């Protein structure tokens, strides 16, 4: 039976041949590269998603077509597991193998072996929900995906053009529908309802919130923010900027969360729109990253990144837990990566347990699950807060001994609904930040004052083979190429407050270099000198050092 079902995919597979010279890799964010080479990958991901669903007894699997903060010409695809989480890592290698089968025959042979090895019962149903961002290449890629799903007879739901976090929400809502664990109504409307009603409860009785300027990166976040605003009514006002979702080349171009984080400046399109003291935020192309910022009275730009969000949110949640009388029972912990600013790590580690894990949401998410309440954020603004099942039960069953305890308990329960616990969600995180600012009567200035960022610089180096770079200690040290770490250590030693590390990117064919030091000039110099070491090690032509800003 296996072979007949799999052999039946041949005619459709022939319509989606693999381009000869490209090697695909399922990295930390799924497959991601130029949109126009991804047709065969999407077809094959359709088959894989159907097989994953069969393997999970017909539970619904999600497929998101996006390249997030990358340029508009890029696209990508990733699978979402039944609880709304990233694909189980053991399947990443299977996905890579299947995507690289050179011919239809090789693909069929590979799939037959895969189905046998994993004992996938093909008689089980397959259910898949998919969505895409606003990229022009998206529609054609979705039709290739559809062919793959059709080839295995999957039951398909098209969630249309929407954000990555909404797709994750839908997957979890579909799979928990009608159970005592229901995550919410399995529709976009259900998502907006859930977030907006929790937000209204949390800010009730607080002074009016000043309008918030949102840079939508000219992406799908513009649609979602607009719909969310309608549900939030007068509890908060958004001023939407960079909403040109159909202007060719506009997506993520000189705007959005990645621009703000890497350039550390105001998107030029916001000049004149943002007043001194007013806070603003940027989403990325699929609305799962969030960066805040403001201009001070001298029109100086100040960035409030994922680390600052983690610090703000963790402190607030810790205070609520205490106010609810639950601080003996519920502990808050933080998860960061090596990219977290050293000043944030110091600030947080003085207050709560902090774990450092390798880059990639799956590592952060997994580590955060080990805390009662786990706050995880990447410095780039991707993150969320996880409340363990036991914590959620304690919150529900707790019997408060005073009105103040009862209020804090109600707020914590509302937070579990406001926060999208499946994945980092720019819009949900933005409402969370607004709740904390409203409760603490903070502007960006007080928030920023929690600690002062160490100046830092991120650069990328194009090398012949990034896989030659291998790391240990949550990516903070290189073990290969041999001898390079020692050279980096010697260099770092000469910089006051210096820290630097090198790792291969999981999403681009580059090696990344991060450096921080006590002054901007020193951080820049350290980054470029370490990048120079990396480049020399890779044996390139020094006259053409291909070192760029990220
Ligand atoms: P890579 O390309 O592996 O550095 C980037 C981000 C990650 C994560 C992924 C997924 C940095 C330095 N790296 O990974 O944090 O967000 O993309 O999108 O920001
Ligand atoms: Zn993104």
Write the layout of secondary structure elements.
Blueprint: H1 2-7, H2 10-14, E1 31-34, H3 39-55, E2 60-65, E3 74-80, H4 90-99, H5 104-117, E4 127-132, H6 138-151, E5 155-161, H7 164-176, H8 188-203, E6 212-215, H9 221-232, E7 238-241, H10 256-263, E8 279-283, E9 290-295, E10 301-304, H11 306-323, E11 332-336, H12 342-349, E12 354-356, H13 361-368, E13 373-377, E14 383-387, H14 389-397, H15 403-418, H16 426-440, H17 444-448, E15 456-461, E16 470-472, E17 477-480, H18 484-492, E18 499-504, E19 511-516, H19 520-537, E20 547-549
Parallel strand pairs: 2-4, 4-5, 6-7, 6-8, 11-12, 11-13
Antiparallel strand pairs: 1-3, 2-3, 8-9, 9-10, 13-14, 15-19, 15-20, 16-17, 18-19
This protein binds 2-acetamido-2-deoxy-1-O-phosphono-alpha-D-galactopyranose and zinc ion.
Ligands, ions, cofactors: 2-acetamido-2-deoxy-1-O-phosphono-alpha-D-galactopyranose, zinc ion
What is the end-to-end distance? 50 Å
| CATH class call of the largest domain | Alpha Beta
Q: Decide which structural class fits the backbone.
A: alpha/beta
Poorly predicted ranges: none
The CATH superfamily of the largest domain is known as Alpha-D-Glucose-1,6-Bisphosphate, subunit A, domain 3
Overall geometry comes to globular
What percent of residues are in strands?
Answer: 15-25%
Mean pLDDT: 95
Q: Major sheet: order of its strands?
A: 1-3-2-4-5
Total domain modules: 4
How much helix is in the residues?
Answer: 40-55%
The CATH architecture of the largest domain can be named as 3-Layer(aba) Sandwich
| Total number of beta strands | 20
